[in-house]
Specification:
The chain has 213 residues and is of the alpha+beta class. The chain contains six helices and eight strands, in the order H-H-E-H-E-H-E-E-E-H-E-H-E-E. The protein has an eight-stranded mixed β-sheet with strand order 2-3-4-5-6-1-7-8. The longest helix has 16 residues. It is globular and about 40 Å long.
Length: 213
């Protein structure tokens, strides 16, 4: 049976095929490399000042609020997350007990997206060291019935605006190299690529490769 990662790769391949042969071949090569050669994650950074300079004037804000605990989520949503039938990669209940904060976005009165932020003390779970004035945009999932509305970008933008007011100075985020959709969304927010993390499929050796500016 396919795991969540394999299902995601198939979805991305199908989406690329709809965009044409070139897009499909590009996606296929990145997928084969990830499966057979190495797992590569791209790491991005965005300074708060740069974020504030590039705010779209016509971007409607969403209602985004922090969730203190598992039982603060609606019961119907908790059942969906626990069932596993929809393969919603939202995170885990145990994360509430760590230096991680869950945010929920609502649209038309319904939760449409869940997203986690990690504090700098959690950078051991990231791909590079993170300074004390930074936070990591971590797991995010848009519920299936709300997809196709560019919500990932809007939710992250709203979250970052709030965290800047709380004193955060910069943000980090990562995505799989093969996930061109996530990369496009990240770059729409103004993030710049600062390096990549490799893990060999043959030796499991890991390495961090920063980019020079």
């Amino acid at each position: 049976m396919f795991g969540l990662g394999q299902r995601k790769k198939l979805i991305l391949l199908r989406s690329a095929a709809h965009r044409g042969a070139g897009a499909f071949l590009h996606q296929a090569w990145a997928t084969v490399a990830d499966i057979g050669l190495r797992r590569r994650n791209l790491v991005f950074q965005l300074d708060g000042d740069d974020f504030l300079k590039n705010q779209p004037a016509d971007d409607p804000t969403l209602e985004v609020s922090r969730v203190s605990g598992w039982h603060d989520l609606p019961e119907t949503l908790r059942r969906r997350l626990e069932s596993g039938e929809e393969n919603l990669e939202w995170g885990d209940k145990s994360w509430f007990d760590k230096d991680r904060w869950l945010w929920a976005a609502t649209l038309d009165g319904e939760v449409c997206c869940l997203a986690w932020i990690l504090g700098p003390d959690e950078d051991e779970h990231f791909f590079c060291a993170v300074p004390s004035d930074a936070e990591i945009l971590f797991q995010i999932v848009v519920l299936p019935e709300f997809r196709g509305r560019s919500l990932q970008v809007r939710v992250h933008r709203t979250m970052m605006a709030e965290r800047l007011q709380a004193g955060t100075r910069r943000f980090f985020i990562a995505c799989h190299e093969y996930n061109y959709t996530s990369r496009r969304n990240i770059e729409k927010l103004g993030f710049r690529l600062i390096g990549f993390h490799n893990e060999s499929r043959f030796t499991s050796r890991q390495s961090w490769k920063p980019l020079t500016r």
